[in-house]
Specification:
Layout lengths: L1 H34 L2 H28 L7 E3 L5 E4 L2 E5 L1 H10 L3 E2 L5 H13 L12 E2 L2 E2 L2 E7 L2 E14 L9 H5 L10 E15 L5 E5 L3 H14 L7 E3 L15 E5 L3
Parallel strand pairs: 3-12
Antiparallel strand pairs: 1-2, 3-9, 4-7, 5-6, 7-8, 8-9, 9-10, 11-12
Helix pairs in contact: 1-2
Length: 267
């Protein structure tokens, strides 16, 4: 029975892929090519495909393949799995900001047209942008609440960074509890929060599977987890670190032992 379900899913995905490819090439590109110069038609087809059609298709395909597992990875705008959740810190927002200030990290600017243009200019000129914005990743169905980074070699192309999603909770942390990971909660900024973090190292630029331009991440994400924790421990910003491994998951391009580090921030 499982064999039939798996092959039915694969056939459905293949049919969707073929249909999407036909739709992009013929109805979209051919019509644009008839009305616009070739280069403009290609660029518009790329934008429509990479940033509008393919992300929606990916979300639809994920519904077909969904297995109901606890989310271990964040997702990009295109719906694909991105950085794994690997650090959980507990404390107030002020505690979190203070901790990363102590280790010399900068808070990322909000993503906007101005900050995006500035990021592109700094990338082309290879000039430092310590507060460079982060692209939006999603966990619990929402964008990150805050992010911090440390430039590598004063270049905007490489950096250590981590995104955080806040959850208010008065309960003891239990990564094995499905509701803890999936239930949406209203954030109270004046309360102690559980900050779910996805830390990774950007080592350049590349295209995603849906052909969107993005940073290329070092696949050995455990090194980044250790690097961040070592800095926080050395500056005495966190207490004892406990590790959890909430079930098996497909690593994909990442090389990881799958553990999530949990620690309390010091006030």
């Amino acid at each position: 029975m499982r064999f039939l379900i798996r092959w039915s899913q694969r056939i459905a995905v293949a049919v969707i892929a073929i249909t999407v490819a036909w739709f992009i090439i013929f109805p979209i590109f051919n019509r644009l090519d008839q009305r616009l110069p070739l280069l403009v038609a290609i660029m518009m087809t790329y934008y429509i495909s990479a940033y509008i059609i393919l992300p929606k298709i990916v979300h639809f395909v994920l519904l077909i393949l969904r297995k109901g597992r606890i989310p271990r990875f964040t997702r990009g705008n295109d719906g694909l799995l991105v950085d794994p959740v690997n650090i959980i810190l507990v404390g107030t927002k002020e505690d979190l900001i203070k901790a990363f200030e102590k280790i010399g990290w900068d808070k990322a600017d909000k993503l906007s047209i101005n900050s995006s243009i500035k990021m592109i200019e700094r990338f082309i000129d290879n000039r430092s942008y310590p507060n460079a914005p982060f692209s939006s990743l999603f966990l619990f169905g929402k964008r990150q609440d805050i992010g911090f980074q440390q430039s590598i070699g004063n270049s905007p192309r490489k950096r250590h960074h981590i995104r955080f999603w806040a959850i208010n909770t008065d309960k003891e942390i239990d990564p094995f509890d499905l509701n803890f990971w999936t239930k949406k909660r209203r954030i109270k900024p004046d309360k102690i929060c559980t900050w779910m973090g996805a830390g990774s190292e950007d080592v350049g630029f590349a295209f995603t599977l849906t052909y969107q331009l993005s940073h290329r991440v070092d696949p050995e994400v455990d090194k980044e987890r250790k690097y961040i924790l070592d800095l926080l421990k050395k500056s005495k910003q966190i207490g004892k670190v406990t590790y959890y491994k909430p079930g098996n998951f497909k690593v994909g391009k990442y090389i990881s032992d799958g553990r999530i580090a949990v620690a309390k921030l010091k006030s």
